[in-house]
């Protein structure tokens, strides 16, 4: 693709601005667009991008024209075709062709070879931002452009995206210290299942009793359900009978209405609307017949009243034949008197002109000369006038030259007494080159200083600022690892704290339940029962020793207490089992709490150690206060950037030290010679340039004065000869003029009368032509009038009209006779045709009436003779009655079916039998009673269901075997899935590493051509300062390095800004060659990226742009005049300069 022309119709500050790049030249397609600051160079490049990719929703270039009014158009050469496109800021139809037809967006995408706007900017539209940003990506093999350049030659650019997807899939399965991967989620689910299994795995007790209680509750519940179903069925039967009684009444009512309608048909195929239409048609045709008969009677009367004269009809053609002659006659009546008056006026005017020329009326014909004589006289008059003007002009020119000679004698220039030749001085020191180099050096140092200052400012924390780059005690990747470790430890500590709180809550709940069973439930624990038995045994031993009544009573009381405790324990066996289980669970919960507490203490210790490590790093970096661990990696990266910026500043200062020293020396020399006080280099050079310009101006003024003096003296001698020749020519012209006038007009006119012009003679000649024309017109009009009157009189004689000499009156009489005859014939024919049409209409209406009568008879055939259908009105009434009867029959049939379906019987008789003896009142009472019985059963069923639920709950509380088995099965499934995730992760990770290694080897083998092209271009741009390019591995990608002439290797970030830009330009040029080799050439734009280049490297950069122009199209935008001069110097005719 090539840009033929670009038109910024309404964009930015431009309205109707057009760049015409013309057809591609054999010498190259390199263009330089030059203009001052803010002239619109960047606007031009942005306009081109919008032509290709459209307008953004918020456009910063809509400051002069509203966004909705923006418009950009251009002509593109695509292969052998030339196409014109227009881009508008609208949703639909934003891209149109030369005919205004809207085009789809993919029409432009196909031309661009798949490059999106971001890729085009970074690769082919370069400014200070995109050349640096895209260049960094290229140099480190990152981003889409990096992949394109590092992989395109190997044909594997698509594989990089595939490998990124593989890496992403592997990371989703498992990633170190990540908590959201599939492996981590499955691991947490397995731990949760282990915990749940431990909580549910308890021994069963009192199982048989609880099972018997459940079976009894289920049996009672089933009995109540069966009873409720029977009551509901009985109530449904009663409700059915109650609903059927009104339906039977409706059947009886409809049957009574249909008595006496048996003769009406069972089916009606007549549309009532058709009958209405037939009635309307019958009325319409009857009215047509009446109207036609009335019109026929009137037409017969009018026909008999017509008076016909066919003998006058030939007058029509005769008068038509005279129409042209009559038109000339009427024209003569209008114009004849006027033409005679004009003829007299023109004759009088010619006589007046002859008197003005000094001639008598008798000599008028002598003044009428032919065109040749007129031309000869005009030529002689013009020659006389030119000779006079020439003589006067040459005299005036001679006088002016003499005045100029006297003025030059009195205006001799004053020369300067300056001792220093400032022009030679500036050339000796190379001031122009030094100025450019000095500006570049100052800019580079200032840019490096700004970068360094910005990097120091980025290190500011609260009120602590840094004047120098601090020490970096830890690498940024290590800082990120430390921050991740602190985050994971904080998360683990929080989870352990939550687990400890859950254990505390569980212990408290179990303790409260045990206390409740012991204190409020009457349950005697094993310890209390053992204590009672021990007391009984003690009292028995004492009784055996003393054998007293008191000892016996004490033993009896103790024995009774043991028996009572045994009874209570027997009656509360179920609660006792729960108590024993709770006590075992409590012991286990306390053990788990102890283990969690130990883990929590260890986690706290690890977390404190990690925080201490963060604080140590911050202290070593010179921070007064420790940073938040999450903020540490970002600050460490900023510190690394500050160290790099400091190093870059030192290198820039060293690179430009010689230029700055030479600039200081030149400034001091100029200051001493020109007596300046502490000037800058720019001020000193400007002063020297002004003095050099003043000296040059004085020299040129002296040389110009001497040259002008010589020129004026020579011109005066030439002018004197010219004046004499002009006077001689004037005398000859006057003599010829007098002789010509005398011979042409035979003495009737003096020569002086025509010196001011020949207008009177031309007027006489023109008036004579008009006078002759008026004479011819008058004669023709008179002849036409006579002929017209003679022909009209012949027609009047033929038709016996009285004699008449007035042609208009005679024509009017003849026309009246012809018109009357023609009108009578036309009226006769009109009435005859009207009568014929009326007869036809009357016959057609009668035929339609006959058809209607036949249709009525056909429709009435379905009715028996007992029903009146002779007329349309009778038939319509019969149809309406039949429709009503059919509707009632249908309703009766539906009612019968509904009744028999309701009662589930076969016919109406069986339905009557079912309803016999039932009334609405008795059925309503029965339904109410059944409803109350159902409510009682529902209440009892609710109680039985609650009891059954309680029994089921009690049984489930005892046994958890099935739940344990289910949870164990789930745990086994999760463990299998964990194995599958681990296997899949290993497959992806190992496959990714093997594929990366294969791609790297393949890339090393196949990309040498592109790397050599970039290497050669970079060597050209740096004038041999850098001789080789290579790549080194950097993690999972590669980094570009350059070797200078001394063999030292540098990365792009270690180069000066100008050299770095030259490297990035070389990479773009190599990429452009790569695209061109693949058949894709696109316009290559650069916006003042040579600004940091010195003059020699600028020349080399212009050669590179010209080389790109040989392959495709290169366009450079600049506000530096010296860049334009260098481009023309280096490229010659291969570059075209456009000005804004």
Short structural summary:
With 1140 residues, the protein is an alpha/beta fold. The chain is flat, with a radius of gyration of 62 Å.
What does this structure look like?
This protein is of the alpha/beta class. Among the domains are: 207-268 and 876-947 and 954-958, no CATH class; 271-358 and 760-861, no CATH class; 384-410 and 704-759; 422-449 and 665-703, no CATH class; 526-571. Helix content is 71%, strand content 7%. The strands form 3 sheets. A 6-stranded antiparallel β-sheet has the order 2-1-4-5-6-7. A hairpin with a 2-residue loop joins β1 and β2 (14-20).
Q: Give the helix/strand class.
A: alpha/beta
C-alpha Rg (nearest Å) = 62 Å
What percent of residues are in strands?
Answer: 5-15%
Give the proportion of residues in helices.
over 70%
Protein name: YhaN AAA domain-containing protein
Organism: Donghicola eburneus
Keywords: Coiled coil
Pfam family, one: AAA_27
Task: Give a topology summary.
Blueprint lengths: L1 E10 L2 E7 L9 E5 L6 H13 L17 E8 L2 E7 L7 E2 L5 E2 L2 H6 L5 H8 E2 L1 H12 L3 H9 L5 H17 L8 H19 L6 H51 L14 H33 L9 H8 L1 H34 L14 H39 L12 H8 L1 H27 L18 H44 L6 H21 L2 H23 L1 H48 L11 H24 L1 H18 L6 H65 L13 H40 L8 H54 L11 H32 L4 H8 L4 H39 L2 H46 L1 H14 L4 E9 L2 E8 L4 E3 L5 H21 L5 E5 L7 H17 L1 E6 L2 H11 L3 E5 L1
Parallel strand pairs: 3-13, 3-14, 8-12, 12-13
Antiparallel strand pairs: 1-2, 1-4, 4-5, 5-6, 6-7, 9-10, 10-11
Keywords: Coiled coil
Pfam families: AAA_27 (PF13514)
Protein name: YhaN AAA domain-containing protein
């Amino acid at each position: 693709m090539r840009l033929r022309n670009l038109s910024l119709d309404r964009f930015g500050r431009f309205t109707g601005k057009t760049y015409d790049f013309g057809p591609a030249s054999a010498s190259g397609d390199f263009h330089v667009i030059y203009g001052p600051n803010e002239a619109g160079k960047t606007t031009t490049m942005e306009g081109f991008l919008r032509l290709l990719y459209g307008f953004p929703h918020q456009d910063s270039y809509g400051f002069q024209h509203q966004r909705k009014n923006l418009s950009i158009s251009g002509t593109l050469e695509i292969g052998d075709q030339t196409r014109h496109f227009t881009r508008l800021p609208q949703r639909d139809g934003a891209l149109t062709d030369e005919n205004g037809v809207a085009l789809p967006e993919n029409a432009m995408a196909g031309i661009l070879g798949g490059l999106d706007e971001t890729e085009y900017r970074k690769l082919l539209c370069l400014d200070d931002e995109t050349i640096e940003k895209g260049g960094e990506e290229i140099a480190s093999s990152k981003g889409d452009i990096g992949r394109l350049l590092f992989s395109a030659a190997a044909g594997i650019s698509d594989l990089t995206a595939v490998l990124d997807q593989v890496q992403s899939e592997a990371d989703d399965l498992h990633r170190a210290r990540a908590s959201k991967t599939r492996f981590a989620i499955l691991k947490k689910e397995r731990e949760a299942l282990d915990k749940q299994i431990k909580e549910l795995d308890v021994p069963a007790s009192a199982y048989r009793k609880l099972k018997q209680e459940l079976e009894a509750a289920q049996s009672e519940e089933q009995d109540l359900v069966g009873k409720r179903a029977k009551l509901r069925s009985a109530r449904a039967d009663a409700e059915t009978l109650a609903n059927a009684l009104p339906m039977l009444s409706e059947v009886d009512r409809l049957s009574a209405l249909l008595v006496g309608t048996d003769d009406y048909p069972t089916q009606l195929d007549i549309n009532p609307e058709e009958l209405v239409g037939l009635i309307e048609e019958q009325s319409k045709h009857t009215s047509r017949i009446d109207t036609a008969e009335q019109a026929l009677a009137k037409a017969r009367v009018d026909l008999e009243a017509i008076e016909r004269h066919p003998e006058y009809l030939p007058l029509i053609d005769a008068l038509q034949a005279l129409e042209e002659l009559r038109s000339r006659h009427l024209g003569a009546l209008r114009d004849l008197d006027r033409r005679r008056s004009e003829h007299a006026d023109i004759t009088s005017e010619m006589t007046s002109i002859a008197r003005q020329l000094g001639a008598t009326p008798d000599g008028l014909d002598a003044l009428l000369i032919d065109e040749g004589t007129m031309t000869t006289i005009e030529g002689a008059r013009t020659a006389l006038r030119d000779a006079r003007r020439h003589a006067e002009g040459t005299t005036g020119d001679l006088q002016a030259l003499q005045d100029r000679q006297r003025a030059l004698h009195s205006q001799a220039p004053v020369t300067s007494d300056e001792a220093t030749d400032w022009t030679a001085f500036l050339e000796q020191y190379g001031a122009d080159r030094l100025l450019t180099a000095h500006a570049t050096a100052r800019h580079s140092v200032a840019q490096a200083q700004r970068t360094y200052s910005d990097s120091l400012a980025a290190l500011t924390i609260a009120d602590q600022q840094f004047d120098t780059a601090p020490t970096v005690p830890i690498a940024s990747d290590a800082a990120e690892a430390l921050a991740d470790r602190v985050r994971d430890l904080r998360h683990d500590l929080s989870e352990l704290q939550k687990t400890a709180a859950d254990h505390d809550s569980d212990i408290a709940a179990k303790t409260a339940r045990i206390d409740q069973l012991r204190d409020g439930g009457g349950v005697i624990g094993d310890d209390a029962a053992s204590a009672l038995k021990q007391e009984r045994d003690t009292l028995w031993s004492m009784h055996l020793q003393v054998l007293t009544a008191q000892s016996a009573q004490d033993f009896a009381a103790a024995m009774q207490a043991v028996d009572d405790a045994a009874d209570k324990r027997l009656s509360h066996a179920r609660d006792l089992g729960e108590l024993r289980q709770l006590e075992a669970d409590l012991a286990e919960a306390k053990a788990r709490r102890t283990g969690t507490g130990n883990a929590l203490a260890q986690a706290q210790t690890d977390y404190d150690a990690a925080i201490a490590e963060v604080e140590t790093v911050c202290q070593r970096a010179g921070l007064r206060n420790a940073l938040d661990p999450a903020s540490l990696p970002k600050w460490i990266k900023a510190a690394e950037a500050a160290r790099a910026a400091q190093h870059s500043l030192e290198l820039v200062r060293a690179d430009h030290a010689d230029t700055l020293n030479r600039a200081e020396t030149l400034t001091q020399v100029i200051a001493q010679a020109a007596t300046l006080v502490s000037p800058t280099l720019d001020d000193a050079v400007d002063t020297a340039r002004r003095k050099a310009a003043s000296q040059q101006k004085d020299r040129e003024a002296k040389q110009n004065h001497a040259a002008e003096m010589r020129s004026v003296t020579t011109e005066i001698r030439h002018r004197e000869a010219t004046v004499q020749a002009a006077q001689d020519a004037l005398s000859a012209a006057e003599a010829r003029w007098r002789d010509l006038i005398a011979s042409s007009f035979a003495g009737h006119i003096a020569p002086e009368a025509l010196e001011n012009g020949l207008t009177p003679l031309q007027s006489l000649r023109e008036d004579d032509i008009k006078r002759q024309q008026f004479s011819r017109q008058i004669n023709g009009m008179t002849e036409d009038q006579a002929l017209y009157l003679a022909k009209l009189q012949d027609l009047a004689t033929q038709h016996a009209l009285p004699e008449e000499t007035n042609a208009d009156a005679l024509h009017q009489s003849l026309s009246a006779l012809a018109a009357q005859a023609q009108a009578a014939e036309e009226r006769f024919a009109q009435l005859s045709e009207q009568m014929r049409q009326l007869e036809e209409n009357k016959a057609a209406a009668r035929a339609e009436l006959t058809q209607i009568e036949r249709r009525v008879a056909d429709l009435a055939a379905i009715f028996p003779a007992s029903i009146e259908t002779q007329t349309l009105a009778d038939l319509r009434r019969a149809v309406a009655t039949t429709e009503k009867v059919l509707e009632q029959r249908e309703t009766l049939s539906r009612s019968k079916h509904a009744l028999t379906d309701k009662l589930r019987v076969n016919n109406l008789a069986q339905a009557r039998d079912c309803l016999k003896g039932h009334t609405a009142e008795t059925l309503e009472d029965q339904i109410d009673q059944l409803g109350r019985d159902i409510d009682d059963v529902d209440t009892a069923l609710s109680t039985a269901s609650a009891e059954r639920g309680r029994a089921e709950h009690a049984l489930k509380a005892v046994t958890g075997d099935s739940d344990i088995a289910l949870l164990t099965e789930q745990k086994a499934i999760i463990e299998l899935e964990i194995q599958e995730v681990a296997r899949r992760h290993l497959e992806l990770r190992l496959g990714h590493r093997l594929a990366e290694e294969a791609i790297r080897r393949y890339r090393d083998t196949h990309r040498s051509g592109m790397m050599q092209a970039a290497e050669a271009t970079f060597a050209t741009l740096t004038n041999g300062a850098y001789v080789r390019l290579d790549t080194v591995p950097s993690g999972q990608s590669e980094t570009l390095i350059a070797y200078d002439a001394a063999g030292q290797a540098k990365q792009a970030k270690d180069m000066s800004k100008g050299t770095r830009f030259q490297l990035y330009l070389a990479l773009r040029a190599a990429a452009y060659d790569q695209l061109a080799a693949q058949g894709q050439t696109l316009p290559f734009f650069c916006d003042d990226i040579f600004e940091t280049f010195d003059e020699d490297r600028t020349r080399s950069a212009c050669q590179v742009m010209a080389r790109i122009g040989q392959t495709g199209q290169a366009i450079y935008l600049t506000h530096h005049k010296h860049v334009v001069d260098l481009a023309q110097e280096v490229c010659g005719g291969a570059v075209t300069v456009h000005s804004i």
